[in-house]
């Protein structure tokens, strides 16, 4: 629609608004009582038909919704109205309404909200319909709706004006209903296993618990620098120290990093910690949660992903990180024990690497470039080099590795878990090494930060603990068969 067409339509709608007011009709009344949603009304009518063997007694209902279609037929008109549950056809006969109400139809446009009262019936075409004996304007829309009711074609507009996407795109509505159900189911599954949900600070003095660059702010009253959290890990482990044996948080974290099809600067993360458990217990927990969520989303552990079908049934495949890197790239990591030699070998393979980055970063680059694209079916990569995981416990028989896994599906990382390091002296040593690396590398993102208050908590004693993080947005992508994170986040970050 051109700018002049838009201005013309808006002007005509403003004129109708003025006309409504001139007729003493409030175009934005404060409330309206509806007896049913549109779907409840349809169900009510069908149940009455079944109870009366096909002949339903007329049922009075009051419904409300946005006008999505108008059809005039002389002394009768039809409207389609849509609410959050579905669509209902409305029949408006001149002899069933007052003259003022029937004349009101001329002042209505697509996008307006109306309330109607009347009886339910089946139209000649067999559609459940409400024959209105009263109609009320609830909100006059001053801008026209998208022209294409099968969904906006302008991707930028879909993301910047999500409300238009939701109005015109049933698939978008279904995706976000699914997202809501996933949250409800996830909490139920964890609650059933005895986990307790908690809230930890979003504004933190030290952005620790992950290898990412934080967003920074300033608190005026305290006159101190604060950060938006990049993880909830260190606060949740403080709670394990305090005696909460099974604890989780489901909330937003913030990382000042790039934006692509599976990264958004703010995203929803589940972190869960279980005392007296290790990373093998966390593998079983991931399988239990993700398979349960798939069952909720599709009624089956099998989920369509593009042209693939992903089977989330336990047990998932378990493969060694080192072996998978060797299989996919030909690199035997033990032969490249330092940053320089590994970086040189990766450059020979055509991978662009920053020479300032540590060896842990280079290995992560190998995984994301050479291994991850092949992990379509659910897979656990297990046993990571120690320099990649400063918060994880050493592997019992191989101290150069740690008890860590990452879970993948659909060629994306969806889970990360450790046997948590609970030795405060070793933890301090590793955090100090990360601080040194960060200083030498010019404050790069891929290092963790030393949190002295967390170390003090750890010195009071933390039992053996398994910890887990699951990226909820990516999981929703998989379960909703959406290829980009922007389609599962209601309001994704975009460029100006």
Compact summary:
The chain has 496 residues and is of the alpha+beta class. It is built from 14 helices and 19 strands. The chain has two domains: 3-145, OB fold (Dihydrolipoamide Acetyltransferase, E2P); 167-316 and 377-487, Bira Bifunctional Protein, Domain 2 (BirA Bifunctional Protein, domain 2).
SSE map:
Blueprint: H1 3-22, H2 38-51, E1 60-73, E2 76-82, E3 87-93, H3 99-104, E4 113-122, E5 128-139, H4 155-160, H5 162-168, H6 170-192, E6 196-197, E7 203-204, E8 216-219, E9 224-228, H7 233-241, E10 246-254, E11 266-275, H8 279-298, E12 302-305, E13 308-311, E14 317-320, H9 321-329, H10 339-348, H11 359-371, E15 379-385, E16 394-395, E17 398-409, E18 412-419, H12 424-440, H13 452-459, E19 465-471, H14 472-480
Parallel strand pairs: 3-5, 6-10, 14-15
Antiparallel strand pairs: 1-2, 1-4, 2-3, 4-5, 7-9, 8-9, 10-11, 11-19, 12-13, 15-17, 16-17, 17-18, 18-19
Describe the model.
The chain has 496 residues and is of the alpha+beta class. The protein folds into two domains: 3-145, OB fold (Dihydrolipoamide Acetyltransferase, E2P) (Beta Barrel); 167-316 and 377-487, Bira Bifunctional Protein, Domain 2 (BirA Bifunctional Protein, domain 2, 2-Layer Sandwich), CATH 3.30.930.10. 34% of the residues lie in helices and 26% in strands. The protein has helices at 3-22, 38-51, 99-104, 155-160, 162-168, 170-192, 233-241, 279-298, 321-329, 339-348, 359-371, 424-440, 452-459, 472-480; strands spanning 60-73, 76-82, 87-93, 113-122, 128-139, 196-197, 203-204, 216-219, 224-228, 246-254, 266-275, 302-305, 308-311, 317-320, 379-385, 394-395, 398-409, 412-419, 465-471. The strands form four sheets. Strands 6, 10, 11, 14, 15, 16, 17, 18 and 19 form a nine-stranded mixed sheet that branches. It has a five-stranded mixed beta barrel with strand order 1-2-3-5-4. A three-stranded antiparallel sheet has the order 7-9-8, with no helix packed on it.
């Amino acid at each position: 629609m051109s700018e002049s067409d838009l201005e013309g339509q808006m002007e005509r709608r403003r004129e109708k608004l003025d006309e409504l007011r001139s007729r003493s009709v409030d175009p934005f009344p404060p409330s309206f009582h509806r007896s049913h949603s549109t779907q409840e009304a349809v169900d009510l009518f069908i149940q009455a038909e079944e109870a009366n063997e096909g002949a339903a007694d007329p049922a009075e209902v009051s419904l409300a919704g946005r006008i999505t279609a108008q059809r005039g037929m002389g002394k009768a008109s039809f409207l389609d109205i849509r609410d959050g549950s579905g669509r209902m056809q409305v029949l408006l006969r001149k002899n069933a309404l007052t003259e003022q109400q029937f004349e009101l139809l001329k002042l209505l446009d697509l996008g307006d909200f109306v309330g109607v009262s009347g009886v339910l019936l089946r139209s000649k075409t067999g559609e459940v319909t409400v024959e209105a004996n009263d109609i009320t304007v609830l909100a006059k829309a001053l801008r026209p709706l998208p022209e294409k009711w099968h969904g906006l074609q302008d991707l930028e507009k879909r993301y910047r004006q999500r409300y238009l996407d939701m109005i015109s795109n049933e698939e978008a509505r279904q995706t976000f209903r699914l997202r809501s159900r996933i949250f409800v189911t996830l909490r139920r599954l964890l609650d059933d296993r005895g986990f307790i949900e908690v809230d930890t600070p979003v504004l933190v003095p030290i952005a620790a618990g992950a290898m990412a660059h934080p967003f920074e702010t300033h608190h005026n009253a305290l006159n101190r620098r604060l950060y938006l959290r990049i993880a909830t890990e260190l606060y949740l482990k403080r709670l394990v120290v305090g005696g909460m044996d099974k604890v989780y948080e489901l909330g937003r974290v913030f990382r000042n990093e790039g934006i692509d099809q599976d990264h958004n600067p703010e995203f929803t993360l589940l972190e869960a910690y279980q005392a007296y458990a290790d990373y093998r217990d966390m593998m079983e927990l991931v399988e239990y949660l993700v398979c349960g969520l798939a069952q909720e989303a599709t009624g089956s552990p099998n989920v369509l992903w593009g042209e693939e079908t992903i089977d989330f049934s336990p047990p998932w495949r378990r493969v060694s990180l080192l072996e998978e890197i060797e299989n996919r790239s030909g690199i035997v990591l033990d032969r490249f024990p330092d940053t320089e030699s590994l970086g040189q070998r990766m450059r020979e393979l055509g991978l662009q690497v920053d020479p300032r980055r540590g060896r842990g970063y280079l290995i992560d680059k190998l995984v994301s470039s050479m291994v991850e694209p092949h992990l379509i079916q659910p897979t656990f990569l297990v046993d990571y080099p120690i320099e990649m995981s400063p918060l994880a416990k050493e592997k019992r028989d191989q101290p150069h590795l740690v008890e860590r896994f990452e879970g993948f599906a659909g060629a994306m990382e969806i889970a990360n878990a450790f046997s948590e390091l609970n030795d405060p002296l070793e933890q301090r040593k590793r955090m100090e090494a990360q601080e040194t690396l960060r200083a030498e590398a010019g404050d790069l993102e891929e290092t963790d930060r030393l949190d002295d208050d967390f170390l003090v908590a750890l010195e009071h004693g933390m039992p053996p603990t398994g910890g887990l993080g699951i990226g909820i947005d990516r999981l929703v992508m998989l379960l909703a068969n959406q290829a980009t994170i922007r389609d599962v986040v209601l309001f994704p970050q975009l460029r100006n």
